[in-house]
UniProtKB/TrEMBL annotation:
The keyword Cell inner membrane applies. It comes from the Bacteria. It is found in: Cell inner membrane. This is TRAP transporter, DctM subunit.
Length: 439
């Protein structure tokens, strides 16, 4: 093993150690990368490469899609769209066993079409859905598990903030990734709903049916669904416009941000200066953090390039006399283990620049692979001990909720995710159909 490779391995080990110790993701990337380049070359080279990376990592008009969709999500969260989706679907699903949980599943999917943050979705529905479920006598683990797991839909269903990061790390089309996530996201929501119905039917104590639900008429159900028209209009305009080729992902982000702003003003919440300023402040903080992470990840990737680890690993795996599915299984297992220990953003920022070229060289479709990676991201979002959705929900649902309560309820939904993951692997056209039909 030569000196460069040794330094690279020590750099990866050091990065993982710093992340496990709690250092901020971007700071850890920058510190390890700068130290590594300094050891391999010299101080001046480290300074020059850091400066060049600071500019080139984000100096492209394409990346303006990120703050636009973040702003759209912030306006959506502040405008009460999540509560609107939840109440409408709950009323439409009244008297069905597990109706409140089913409303959480499809409500989260509907809200995901205008909010690209998984953590925000789980937190918002924790404030809206959890008190209602407890008021109706729902089992705490069943309620928390359904909210935390359904919150992950915002990672898969466009406009997903994580897919934008994937597009940056892998240089794939943002529009195609958005289209590829629609069917898997809706499929997961449907599988969740079927699981909720089956469990509630078998054990009515998990989700009692209230007297209020028995009073709902078919006319009430139709009227309730009309309450989704604003979300449907925004989702159709943004996603449908990209699919039909009317505008780019960046233009879709701008239209979505303006649309959520106008609806938020018309409905009332964004007329309050505190709400409006809060949405702007939140979007600015998230955008700055994401760009900081992107810069750090790109700098670390260049350091790894100097060590030749990605090149040597690619040669090794391509020469390994095993079926390509075996290598894919090893990658998924690695993501599963790392996702249990480190935040998902860190896992993919570290591994995608290395693993993506390998997988493409093995003959896998790049868009399909990114969607499979996103499904692993959804699983990691609720898996102990570092499931961010579980922590976000525990912090928003109330003082009586601890993160271990959330973890007790997510296991059945993880099994649903594994089932969907197997389907995506066995039937790749579930992912590739919509992107292949784009204009």
């Amino acid at each position: 093993m030569d000196f460069f490779t040794t330094v690279g391995i020590l750099g990866v080990a050091g990065l993982l150690s710093l992340l496990l110790a709690g250092m901020h993701l971007a700071v850890a990337f920058l510190f390890v990368a700068f130290s590594g380049v300094f050891v391999l070359l010299n101080w001046n080279a480290a300074i020059a490469l850091a400066g060049e990376t600071l500019y080139s990592s984000i100096a492209t008009p394409t990346y303006t899609v990120l703050p636009l969709f973040v702003l759209m999500g912030a306006f959506a969260a502040a405008s009460g769209f999540a509560e609107q989706a939840y109440k409408s679907i709950h009323r439409a699903a009244a008297r069905i066993p597990g109706s409140l949980a089913i409303a959480t599943s499809f409500g989260s999917a509907a809200f995901a079409t205008i909010c690209g943050s998984s953590l925000a979705t789980a937190s918002v529905f924790g404030r809206i859905a959890y008190p209602e479920m407890r008021r109706y006598g729902y089992d705490r683990g069943f309620a928390l598990g359904s909210i935390a797991s359904s919150g992950t839909f915002a990672s898969m269903i466009p406009p997903s903030g994580m897919f934008i990061l994937f597009a940056i790390f892998t240089e794939t089309s943002i529009g195609q990734l958005f289209m590829a996530g629609i069917i898997p996201g809706l499929l997961t929501a449907t599988v969740y709903a079927i699981s909720m119905y089956w469990r509630a039917k078998r054990n009515p104590k998990l989700a009692p049916i209230s007297e209020e639900e028995h009073a709902v008429t078919p006319k009430d159900r139709v009227k309730a669904l009309r309450g989704l028209w604003q979300i449907a209009l925004l989702g159709t305009l943004v996603i449908g416009g990209m699919y039909a080729g009317f505008f780019t992902a960046t233009e879709a982000g701008a239209i979505g941000a303006i649309g959520t702003l106008l609806f938020g003003l018309a409905n009332g919440p964004l007329r309050k200066l505190d709400n409006f300023r809060g949405a702007l402040r939140e979007s600015a903080q998230i955008t700055a953090t994401l760009f900081f992470i992107i810069i750090g990840a790109m700098f670390f990737s260049r350091f790894l390039g100097l060590t030749r680890i990605p090149y040597n690993l690619t040669l090794f795996l391509e020469s390994w006399d095993v079926h390509r599915h075996f290598i894919l299984a090893l990658i998924l297992l690695t993501w599963f283990v790392l996702g249990m220990l480190i935040a998902q953003t860190a896992v993919f920022a570290l591994t995608l620049p290395i693993l993506f070229p390998i997988v493409v060289n093995l003959g896998y479709d790049p868009i399909w692979f990114c969607v499979v990676a996103m499904k692993m991201n959804e699983i990691a979002g609720v898996t102990p001990p570092v499931g961010l959705n579980a922590f976000g929900l525990a912090g928003s649902a109330g003082p009586d909720v601890r993160v271990e309560h959330v973890y007790r309820g997510v296991f059945p939904f993880i099994m649903c995710d594994v089932f969907v993951l197997i389907l995506l692997i066995m039937v790749p056209s579930i992912v590739t159909f919509l992107p292949s039909m784009m204009y």
